[in-house]
Design goal:
Blueprint lengths: L6 E9 L2 E9 L6 E7 L9 E8 L6 E4 L7 E5 L2 E8 L5 E8 L13 E5 L3 E4 L8 E5 L5 E3 L3 E4 L3 E8 L5 E14 L7 E3 L5 E3 L1
Parallel strand pairs: 9-15
Antiparallel strand pairs: 1-2, 3-4, 4-6, 5-7, 7-8, 10-13, 11-12, 11-14, 14-15, 16-17
Length: about 200
């Protein structure tokens, strides 16, 4: 019987004046369901996201048609984006779904603008970021490691780079250029002067 709906059908059989009845059940398959395990890229800018489809219901085998032309149930090396798939079973029934690959936020290191030091002046540059389990590494222009702290005391001209790395290996970095001047630092100060009427005057 072709083209019948999910139901019970009675079949009458007559042979040699004998009469019999039988009942048959025609059951439609369960609807197609798409379940997916979506893994986002490990770091910002990476293209290692994954989508693993698990299809149930319908009638096997299934065929897969992704919007970008792929025909596999397992997708890997995916960058951030939307991924639409159509799954069709052996009876031509189908189900469609769209999945999102989202990249994590970047690791941002901001050392600020370049600085000019006066003669004999020293500064502390703060590169700490608001993330947990971060490792830091300061290097100079020659690549020598200067510190593994987010802070660095600098008293010489040069280019200094700070690299901040997460526990997953994602990293960000920034550099600052320090210049030197022959100008001397003139400190701000207050001088108290005693006058005849015992009044203090500040200059």
């Amino acid at each position: 019987v072709v083209g019948v709906r999910d139901s019970r059908y009675m079949e009458n059989i007559m042979k040699h004046y004998c009469f019999a009845q039988t009942y048959d059940s025609i059951m439609a398959p369960n609807p197609i369901k798409l379940n997916a395990e979506v893994t986002n890229p490990l770091c910002h800018g990476y293209a290692n996201g994954e989508i693993i489809l698990n299809v149930t219901g319908g009638v096997k085998p299934y065929t897969y048609r992704w919007e970008d032309g792929s025909t596999q149930a397992f997708r890997n090396n995916l960058p951030e984006g939307e991924y639409h798939v159509k799954v069709t079973d052996a009876n031509g029934c189908f189900m469609e779904e769209t999945y999102s690959i989202i990249q994590p936020e970047p690791v941002i290191v901001n050392l600020g603008h370049d600085i000019t030091l006066c003669k004999d002046q020293k500064i502390t540059v703060d590169g700490e970021i608001d993330l947990l389990n971060i490792s830091y590494q300061w290097t100079n222009a020659e690549g020598n490691i200067l510190s593994t702290s987010p802070f660095l005391d600098i008293d010489k001209a040069g280019k200094y780079t700070l690299k901040a790395t997460t526990a997953d290996g994602c990293f960000g970095q920034d550099e600052i250029v320090i210049y030197e001047s022959d100008d001397e630092v003139i400190p701000d100060f207050i001088i108290a002067t005693q006058v005849a009427n015992s009044t203090k005057v500040y200059a």
